[in-house]
Every structure is written in C-alpha cells, then in structure tokens.
Amino acid sequence: MISLPDLVPARMLNEFTYCPRLAYLEWVQSEFAHNPDTLDGRFSHRKVDIEDNRPFPAPGENDPPDSIILHARSVMLSAPILGIIAKMDILELDGNIATPVDYKRGAAPDVLYGAFDPERVQLCAQALILRENGFECESGIIYFVASKTRVEIQFDIILESLTLEMLAGLRTIAASEKMPLPLIDSPKCPRCSLVGICLPDETRALCQTDNDQDDKIRRLLPARDDALPAYVLFQGAQVGKSADRLTVKLKGELINDVKFHDLSQLCIFGNVQITTQALHELISRGIPICYFSMGGWFLAMTTGLIHKNVELRIEQYATASNPEKSLVLAKAFTIGKIKNSRTLLRRHLEQDPDNVLSSLNDLCERAEAVTSPESLLGIEGTAARIYFSGFAKVIKGGDFFKFEDRNRRPPKDPINALLSFLYAMLAKEWTVTLSAVGFDPMLGFYHKPRYGRPALALDISEEFRPLIAESVALSLVNSEEISNRDFVFKAGACALNESGRKIVIAAFERRLDSLITHPIFGYKISYRRIFEVQARLLARTLSGELPAFPNFLTR
Q1: Dihedral in degrees, nearest 10, Cα atoms 10, 16, 17, 18
Q2: Which run of H or of E encompasses 257?
Q3: Torsion of CA 359, 362, 363, 364, to 10 degrees
Q4: Tally of CB atoms within 10 A around 293
Q5: Measured distance CA(460)–CA(447) in Å, rounded
Q6: Pairing state of beta strands 238-242 and 273-274?
Q7: Where do the structural domains in the chain lie, given as residue ranges?
Q8: How confident is the model over 480-530, as pLDDT tens digits?
Q9: Which residue in 319, 531, 351 sits closest to 440, CA to CA?
C-alpha cells in the first residue's frame, strides 16, 4: 500500500475534474512532464510565484482601515480537517473577507459561470481552506492572462458540493491503487502534458480485441525529442557551466557549448572532469550524466533523487521475485530478439543455403513453449549462434572486417569491437529511459542481478539489438563509413580509437533519431521515442492494465 500525503493539493482537484487518470498519474505516481502549455503557464505565473514575506494576519488581527485591501502573493494555507492544501496565487484581504485570485494562462472562455469546472473547483477548494482558517469567503477571481480578464466565481452550494465530490473521488481512486481507464478519443488528450506517459489511445488499442479495435490511433506525442545527448570524448577536457549553457574546455580554451534546455543527457568518456556547478545544474534539470571508460564500457550514471514513482518499483520487485511472471516477460524479450534478428537477415541475405531463416523461426516456436529459464537460455544461445553465422555472410568489408563468431571481454576483431561498443551505448540509452520512467534498471526479469550490471536495461534492449546495434554496425562497414584507420589492436584485443568512436556515436544517434512507422500503432516516431513508449507499456503490463507486453517487431 502506497502512503499518500494527508492533505490533497487543490491543484489535484483541478486535474481530477479534468481527467481522473491524469490526477492519478500526478498525485499517486508522481509523474510529471512539461509541454509548451505548462511552460507558458509557468511563465505567466512568474510574478505571483514570488513569495510575499510580509507577516500574514489572522482573522481579526491588526485589521486595516475599511478602505484598505491587503494583497498577498503565493500564500500557502491548509485545511487539516477537510484535508486540502493550496498555494494561492494572490489573496486579497478586506478585514475578515478573503478573496482568492487564481492565474490561468489562457483567455477567458465563453461558457456558463465564466470558467470551466476544473478551474472553478480549484478556486472553490481555496475558499474552503480560507473558511476553515476563519475567513469569510463567498467569491473568488480567476484572472485569464491571455485576455487580461478578471472573472468572478461565486461559491454557491452547487459548486461546493461538486468540489467535495471531486475530493472524495480523488481519495477513492488513490486508495484503490488502480489507475482509472484513459479517456476515449477525447479532445482533452492532445494538449495534455502527460499524454506521452498516459498513452490513452495505445493503451485502449492493446486492451481491445481484434473485432472492436478503433480504425486509427492518434499520434499524440512528438515524433522526435527536441533535446539530444551530448558526448565528450576529448581526454583532459573540463565540462563546466556558463549562464544557461554547458561548456566544454580543453586546456582552458572553449571548444564547444550547448544550451541546457537542448540537452537530454551528458555522456563522458575517459578522463574528463566536470565542475560542481555544472553537476548541480544538470541534476536540478533532471539531465543524467553517463560515464564510460575510454574504450566505451558503460560504467555509471549520475542522476538526481530517484524517480518518485515508488508504486512502479514495488510492482517491478514483486514481478522479479515471481518465477512464473518473470519467465513470461523473459520469453517475450527473447522471442522479440529472435524475430527481429530473422528480419534483419531476411532483408540482407541473398541466399540461405543453411536454412538460417527457417531455423530461427523454429526456435521462436520452441521459445514460446519453454517452461524454465534454463531452457530459454539454451534456445537463445542456439539462436544467437545461428544468427551470427548468417550475419557474417552479409558483411561486405573484406578481410579486415572478417567475422566468424561473437567474442568479447575483450573483443578480438573489428566487428566484435563495433558490436561491443554499440551494445554499451544501447544499454546506456535503456538505463536512462528506464530510470526516467521510474524503473530500477538494475533488477531484471531475464538477466540475473549482478553487481554493476543494468539487468532490466539488458532485458528490454534484447529485441532492439538487431534493429539498432547490428544494423548500425552493418551500415558502417558495408557503406565504408568506417575503416581500418578507426581501430587499434593491443595485446590480442581490438578497440575503436577516438575517430572510430566519433563515427560510431554519430551513426548510433542518426539511427535513434530516424523515423519509422510503429508496427502496432501505425504512426511515425523515432526509435528514441519508441524506447520510452516500450518502457511505459512495460510499466502498464506490470500493473495489470495491459494483458501482455507487446513486442516491438519490424516487418
């Protein structure tokens, strides 16, 4: 059972009136994401969000003359008996009469009562708080910034009853620990900042049967991310902060900089220093810092305080401790990997005398029937051996890129060096994504927990290895974008040098940024967006909202 605060924020009553699922995500699961509307709303509130440090008078205390109305900004008050708390944008006091003023970013709507119910309920909750604190409060003001309009809201018995009904409803869904169903084809969804977390159309489509599926699923989330990763490979470089920009200096000379709001993650390779000021700024903005060895081994990640969605991690730990549920997910990851591996070979193999494709298809059917993780591991190992035998035939890089089998720790040839580096990059990407969603990336359902290994990231990345890592490696070699000048051999091992790492990182980012049509939902989004969608769908599977985890399978 998740313990929630005793006091319900008045803003959550606004959200619950608008959409119960939105309120559950924000209040129970502590999910939040900005979009242009919320950022614009924050800007509109910039003045009233400045706390007023003047003493706040209690009712009857130091009453001013009748002609004077006191104004206080950003006033936090609670009603412990009723169980509500609110930060009021502006509070106007005329003796014992209090009038809350709430700022809204849009224009005043042409509707009955002058405002929509969510805004009226939030303001009425503030009135109830003021009354419990001894003030008289019969009306309030909603100030619409876009139209510069003050709309007076009367707190009649009907609005008070609606507010108390919303308060009881929010507490009920929170106590049930069951997320409300998403809205159906609602016009509210496209402007909601949490639509990429909620996934309303996608969730309903996956819960429907083939006979009652909707014709079209709306693409409500952006196709690509605006913010992108930054990579620092210069040995001896220093990462710092200057105003609103992240800077990279080498021997005191600025070699690159980027605005923080354009940055999704910072990846540091080898001997690179980062200042405390830059570290604090990145953490405060929720931007993770990923650390790699100079050769590309993913070592660690620095983030702020762990994601607040404790409910999801409780479900993850419970599933991981249940062998039957873990095996179901492990089979899904493995089958997805084998099918996508087969698709890659089917697209590139000119001939198949060894029946690699049919063998992989047979192994998929066998994987669906296994009853133990040991049997699944055996099937996966056999599938990998057969797949890489076919993969060797589609590489056209000549003798230098000759590939016989998969080897690692350390890789002994250029293809294995490429694959190991790309697998590390993929593990990093999934570790960042899973952490952002609220998972513990270290505890998986297939890969066993091991010190320093992001087991869940390795689990869910399985089906994306052929689509991302092996596809990038194949493209780099066959297009001659990478050559023998980009590798170094030492003590029987092979690794990418600095120029090679730059080439591979650029190709990896291009692949993640490329748009593809989602095989289930039908809209076009980037692979990086698909990662987040898959992580969210895994969360919905663990909560029981989805009947089964949907693999991402290309055609």
Answers
A1: 110
A2: strand 253-259
A3: 130
A4: 11
A5: 10
A6: parallel
A7: 8-176, 233-302, 310-543
A8: 899 999 999 988 899 999 899 999 999 999 999 999 999 999 899 999 999
A9: 319
CA neighbor of 331 nearest in space, from 446, 423, 442, 441: 446
| Predicted local distance difference test score (pLDDT) of residue 217 | 85
Query: Is the predicted pLDDT of residue 67 greater than 50, yes or no?
Result: no
Residue 179 has pLDDT above 70, yes or no: yes
CATH superfamily of 310-543: CRISPR-associated endonuclease Cas1, C-terminal domain (1.20.120.920)
3-state helix, strand, coil in the chain (%, to 5): 45, 20, 35
pLDDT per position as a tens digit, 201-230: 999 889 876 555 555 788 887 888 888 899
Instruction: Note the pLDDT of residue 106.
Output: 86
The pLDDT value recorded for residue 223 is 85
The angle subtended at Cα 28 by Cα 125 and Cα 89, nearest 5°, is 35
Amino acid, single-letter form, for residue 114 = G
DSSP, collapsed to helix, strand or coil, labels residue 249 as strand
Q: What average pLDDT is seen over the chain?
A: 87
CB 153 within 8 A of CB 144: no
Three-class secondary structure of residue 350 per DSSP: coil
pTM for the full model? 0.86
**Quick check: helix, strand or coil at residue 297?**
coil
Using pLDDT thresholds of 50, 70 and 90, give the confidence band for residue 191.
confident
Q: What's residue 64's pLDDT?
A: 46
Report the b/e string of 121-140 with b at 16+ CB within 10 A.
bbbbbbbbbbbeeebebeeb
Instruction: State the greatest distance between any 2 C-alpha atoms of the chain, in Å, as a whole number.
Output: 97
CATH class for domain 233-302? alpha beta
Tell me yes or no: is domain 8-176 CATH 3.90.320.10: yes
What is the per-residue pLDDT for 349? Answer: 85
Place of tokens 């950022």: 39
DSSP β-bridge partners for residue 100: 91
**28/421 Cα distance (integer angstroms):** 39
| DSSP track, 444-483 | -SSSPP-TT--HHHHHHHGGGIIIIIIHHHHHHHHTTSS-
